[in-house]
Amino acid sequence: MDLINALTQQYMKPELPEMNVGDTVRVTVRIKEGNRERNQAFEGTLIAKKHGGINETITVRRISYGVGCEKVFPVHSPTIVSVDTVRRGKVRRAKLYYLRDRVGKAAKVREKL
After folding, report:
1. What span, in angstroms and rounded, lies between the C-alpha atoms of 15 and 22?
2. What sign has the CA pseudo-torsion 46, 47, 51, 52?
3. Residue 64: which region, alpha, beta or left (left: phi > 0; alpha: psi -120 to 50)?
4. Which residues contact 46 (CB under 8 A, 6 or more apart)?
5. Do the Cβ atoms of 93 and 21 come closer than 8 Å?
6. pLDDT digits (tens, 9 = 90+) for 63-89
7. Contact 70, 27 (CB under 8 A)
8. CA 49 → CA 17, 61, 63, 104, distances in Å?
9. Looking at residue 19, which CATH number applies to its domain?
10. Which listed residue, 9, 28, 35, 38, has the most CB atoms within 10 A of its CB?
11. Residue 113 falls within a domain, yes or no?
C-alpha cells in the first residue's frame, strides 16, 4: 500500500483551494484544439464531491441558455488549471442533486456570510 501511495502522491496537486458543496466555483480547463491550446472557464454550483486522493472529482452544475449543464472534473487532472471559489454557499447536504429538478430562483443556494 505504501508503494501505491508514494506513486499517487507525486501526481497530486500540492495545494487545493477550500471548496465545499454549495459553493459557486470557477473551474479553468486547458483545452487543446488542433495544435493550439487555450483556457476555458466553467462557472457553476458545486453539487457533489466524490472519492478522495488522486481519484477525487467534483461535479459542477450551471444553467446555460435555460438548459442545465453538469460537468464532472477530476481535481488532480493536469488539464485543470485552477479552481477558484467565487462565493460560499450554506447547505445542509453532502450532495445537491435536488437542484436538478428546480428552475429559476428555487435553484439558488443561500450565501454563507
Report:
1. 21
2. positive
3. beta
4. 19, 20, 21, 22, 23, 24, 25, 58, 59, 60, 89
5. yes
6. 999 899 999 999 999 999 999 999 999
7. no
8. 14, 12, 19, 24
9. 2.30.30.790
10. 28
11. no
Residue 112 covered by a domain: no
Position 89 in a domain: yes
Write down the pTM of the prediction.
Answer: 0.91
Nearest to 89 by CA among 103, 65, 109, 60: 109
pLDDT per residue over 39-65, tens digit each?
999 999 999 999 989 999 999 999 999
Task: Copy the grid coordinates of residue 98.
Answer: 435536488
C-alpha cell at 9: 502522491
Number of domains the chain is built from: 1
Domain span at residue 94 reads 2-107
